[in-house]
Amino acid sequence: MPLIAESGLATALAAGGTFVSGIVLIASVVGGATYAAKSASTGIISMVCGYVGASVATEPGPTPGTASDAKRIEPGLSPAIQAEIRGGIETAAALGVPRTAIIDDIAAALANEMPEADPARIRKQAEQAVTSVAAELCTEPALDGLPTDAVARAGRGVVAVQAALAMRGVPYSWGGGGPNGPGYGIGRGARTKGFDCSGLTEYAWARAGVRIGTTTYEQWRAGVRVPRSQIQPGDLIFYETDPSIPGPDHVGIAIDATRMVHAPFTGSTVRIDTWAGAPSRERALVGIIRPT
């Protein structure tokens, strides 16, 4: 069941968008690359800040919109659910959906997941989640600040980056995740719901309407090679960390010429790291692919 119900977004999705794991498949709503470039260049993150709103908590606490408030998500929400809320909030802001509609949808979805819970508590949890996640997104480094022409050229890559950024904080799970979002992995990832490196990239590019395959080996062949001097948001950065096994064994998604978002290793979470200039990563770098 999607985390965010379709009811509150029915008007915005009249063009035919569908929810997948609580996130709108943006490319199907307004036409992929054109919409991605427009929404990124106007600053999706800045629009999200409107969801912080007035305080929704009656008890004393930090002022909404501050970094400390961003960490006040109720403990009952798993990292995967929080990530889905993040993605839904970013998409809803880009589509102009009112804050109250997002709260209604999250409350309805949480009520379905916890049918025995008190409705008032569910509503408060949904309000706090929206305020907290929006406050965090307001201070999140992402695509804002990149040159507009670079964002426009990236097209669907911008959608992929935003989808991956929305998963920050989701645990690494060996073999986990895929086009529909976080999932349980295999082996040492069997008890963890999350993403491995290629599961995250597959998910992100699926949100942009492009299927790139499941493994790093498939994804290495899913596009065209580009020189690092021409890297754009959404390009896939490949590494070979184990020379005894031919082919790339790690992949991240470029945010810009120095940063990437990726799922690094067991025990970590999806996060932003510097890829350019880091000696260990420079040694392991095998190439950059732009999915087609």
Structure report:
- This is C40 family peptidase.
- Residues 152-292 form the NlpC/P60 domain.
- The chain crosses the membrane at residues 12-37.
- This protein is α+β, with helices and mostly antiparallel strands.
- The protein has two domains: 7-138, no CATH class; 148-291, endopeptidase domain like (from Nostoc punctiforme) (endopeptidase fold (from Nostoc punctiforme), Alpha-Beta Complex), CATH 3.90.1720.
- The chain contains eleven helices and ten strands.
- It has a six-stranded antiparallel β-sheet with strand order 5-10-6-7-8-9. Strands 1-2 form a two-stranded antiparallel ribbon. A two-stranded antiparallel sheet has the order 3-4.
- α2 packs antiparallel against α7.
- The longest helix is centred in the middle third of the chain and has 20 residues, at 119-138.
- The radius of gyration is 19 Å and the shape is globular.
- The model is unreliable at 1-43 and 54-73 (pLDDT under 50).
